[in-house]
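Progress note, sequence design subtask.
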C-alpha cells in the first residue's frame, strides 16, 4: 500500500501568473490523478506545502518535512503537479529524483510531465530540470536588472521599510519619518557619539524596555525581512545596534545594492558589495541624523574594530574563521575564547544577557575544521564518482536533432523532385513544403538553445574538475583553505551549517 506525499509549492512569481499555478490548482490536478489510478486509492495521503517560497532557495519547510517523513519510512510515493515544484535548481532536483528517491525506494510521479519512476528511466526528466534551472537563473537576472535600472532612476522601492521610516501612502518611492522609531535611532547615535560601544548601548536599551526593530515592526504590522523566533526579536544585541550605526540611510542617503547573492534565491549566500559599486541617491530619505555625527561615529567604530567581536577575535593566530562565524540563534557574529581543550567560538549574546535564551552553544575550532575536512573529502569522492552524464546526454540529443535537420533537408529535396516530375500536385507540394520549413525552423531554434546549454554544462564540468584538482592538493585545513572555500559558518545547538563559496552543505 502506498503512503503518498503530495507536495505543492507556490512562489511569489507563480502568484503573479494567477490561478493556473495556485496551490488549489496543484492540489486539484494531483487529486484527480490519484482518483483515476486505482493503485493509489487505498493508500494514505499526506500533503506538504510551501507557499510564497522560491524554488531556488534552501529554506523550504514543507519539502524538508516531506524528506524527513521519507527518511523515517512514512512516505514511499511522492506526487507533484510538475517537476519544477521540487525546485528549479537542476542539481538539487536531480539529486532528489536520481539519488534520494531511489535510495529510499520512493516512487516519484510528475503529473504534467507524464513521468512515473516506476515505468520510466530516471534520466528522462534531466532535460526538464536543466530547462527549469536555466529559466530560474534567467528570471533572477531579469528581476535583478529591472531593480538596478529602477534604482539608478531613483526608484528605490521594494523590500521591508528601514527602521525609523514609513512609506508615504501617496508615493511608493517616497518615505516619511516614523517618529517613535526615529527617536530611538537618534538616541542610539547620540550614545555612540558619547563614546558608548554597541554592546553598551544594547544594555541601556534593554534596561529601558525599548522594543527591538523586529518587535516594533510586528506591533505596527510592518513586514520584517525574515520572520523568526530568534533572539533578535526579543532583546537588543550589540549586533543589532552595530548594523543600525552602519546604515547610511539615516543621513538621508538612499542606498541600493549593498549586498548580492552568489546563488539565486539563497539568502544564506548573500555577500557584501564594495561601497564603490553601491547606487546612492543623496537626500532620498528625510535625514534622522546629521552626516557630521554619522561620520564621527563611523570613525570611532573603525578605530575600535573588533569591539563587537572581542579582541581575541582579531589577534588570536588560532582564529582561522575570522569574520566568518555567525550564531544561528540570534545572527550575531560569534565571539571567541580559549580553555584547556583549545580555541572555541560562542555567541556573545548569551554572555551579555543572561536572561536571553539564545539556543546556540560553544563550538570548538577543531570541531569545525574536522567537519570541513570530512565534507571536502566526501565532496571530492562524490564528484570523482559522478560521470558527466548530462554532457553526454545533451550531446546525444544534439546529434539526434542535427540528424533530423538533415533528414528534413533530404525530404525537401525529394518533395521538390516529386513535384517537378508531376507525381504530386502544386497544392500538396506547397502545404508539405510549408510544414517542412516550419519543422526545420523549430529544429534550428532547438539546436541553438541546446548548443548554448551544452556549452554551459561543459564549462560547469571544467570548473568542477578544476575545483577537484585544487582540493585534492589539500593536506590540512589552513587559512588559505578557509578563505578559498568557506563563505561563512553558522552555529546551531546540534548542527553546523557551512555556506561554501560553491554550494551549501549542512552537517
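Output:
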Amino acid at each position: 500500500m502506498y503512503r503518498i506525499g503530495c507536495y505543492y509549492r507556490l512562489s511569489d512569481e507563480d502568484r503573479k501568473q494567477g490561478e493556473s499555478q495556485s496551490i488549489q490548482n496543484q492540489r486539484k490536478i494531483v487529486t484527480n490523478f490519484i482518483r483515476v489510478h486505482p493503485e493509489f486509492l487505498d493508500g494514505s495521503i499526506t500533503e506538504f506545502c510551501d507557499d510564497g517560497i522560491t524554488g531556488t532557495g534552501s529554506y523550504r519547510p514543507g519539502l524538508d518535512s516531506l524528506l524527513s517523513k521519507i527518511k523515517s519510512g512514512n512516505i514511499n510515493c511522492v506526487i507533484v503537479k510538475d517537476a519544477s515544484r521540487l525546485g528549479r535548481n537542476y542539481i538539487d532536483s536531480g539529486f532528489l529524483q536520481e539519488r534520494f528517491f531511489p535510495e529510499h525506494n520512493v516512487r516519484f510521479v510528475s503529473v504534467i510531465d507524464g513521468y512515473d519512476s516506476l515505468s520510466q528511466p530516471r534520466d528522462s526528466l534531466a532535460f526538464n530540470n536543466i530547462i527549469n534551472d536555466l529559466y530560474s537563473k534567467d528570471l533572477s537576472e531579469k528581476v535583478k536588472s529591472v531593480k538596478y535600472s529602477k534604482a539608478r532612476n531613483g526608484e528605490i522601492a521594494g523590500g521591508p521599510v528601514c527602521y525609523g521610516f514609513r512609506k508615504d501612502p501617496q508615493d511608493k518611492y517616497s518615505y516619511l519619518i516614523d517618529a517613535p522609531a526615529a527617536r530611538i535611532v537618534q538616541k542610539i547615535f547620540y550614545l555612540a557619539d558619547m563614546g558608548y560601544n554597541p554592546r553598551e548601548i544594547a544594555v541601556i536599551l534593554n534596561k529601558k524596555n525599548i522594543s527591538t526593530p523586529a518587535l516594533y515592526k510586528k506591533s505596527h504590522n510592518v513586514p520584517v525581512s525574515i520572520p523568526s523566533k530568534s533572539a533578535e526579536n526579543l532583546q537588543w544585541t550589540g549586533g543589532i545596534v552595530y548594523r543600525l550605526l552602519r546604515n547610511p540611510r539615516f543621513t538621508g542617503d538612499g542606498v541600493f545594492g549593498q549586498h548580492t547573492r552568489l546563488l539565486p534565491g539563497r539568502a544564506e549566500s548573500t555577500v557584501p558589495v564594495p561601497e564603490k559599486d553601491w547606487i546612492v541617491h543623496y537626500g532620498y530619505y528625510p535625514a534622522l541624523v546629521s552626516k557630521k555625527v554619522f561620520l564621527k561615529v563611523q570613525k570611532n567604530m573603525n578605530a575600535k574594530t573588533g569591539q563587537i567581536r572581542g579582541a581575541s577575535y582579531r589577534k588570536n593566530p588560532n582564529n582561522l574563521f575570522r569574520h566568518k562565524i555567525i550564531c544561528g540563534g540570534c545572527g550575531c557574529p560569534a565571539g571567541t575564547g580559549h580553555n584547556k581543550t583549545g580555541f572555541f567560538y560562542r555567541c556573545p549574546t548569551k554572555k551579555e544577557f543572561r536572561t536571553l535564551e539564545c539556543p546556540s552553544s560553544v563550538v570548538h575550532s577543531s570541531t569545525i575544521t574536522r567537519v570541513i575536512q570530512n565534507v571536502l573529502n566526501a565532496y571530492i569522492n562524490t564528484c570523482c564518482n559522478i560521470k558527466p552524464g548530462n554532457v553526454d546526454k545533451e550531446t546525444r540529443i544534439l546529434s539526434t536533432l542535427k540528424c533530423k535537420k538533415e533528414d528534413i533537408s533530404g525530404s525537401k529535396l525529394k518533395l521538390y523532385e516529386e513535384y517537378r516530375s508531376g507525381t504530386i500536385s502544386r497544392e500538396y507540394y506547397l502545404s508539405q513544403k510549408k510544414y517542412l520549413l516550419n519543422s526545420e525552423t523549430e529544429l534550428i531554434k532547438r539546436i541553438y538553445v541546446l548548443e548554448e546549454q551544452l556549452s554551459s554544462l561543459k564549462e560547469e564540468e571544467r570548473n568542477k574538475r578544476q575545483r577537484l584538482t585544487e582540493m585534492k592538493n589539500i593536506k590540512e585545513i589552513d587559512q588559505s583553505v578557509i578563505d578559498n572555500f568557506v563563505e561563512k559558518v553558522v552555529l546551531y545547538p546540534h548542527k553546523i551549517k557551512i555556506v561554501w563559496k560553491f554550494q551549501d552543505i549542512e552537517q
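The chain is about 50% helix and 15% strand. Work on this subtask will continue into the next period as scheduled.
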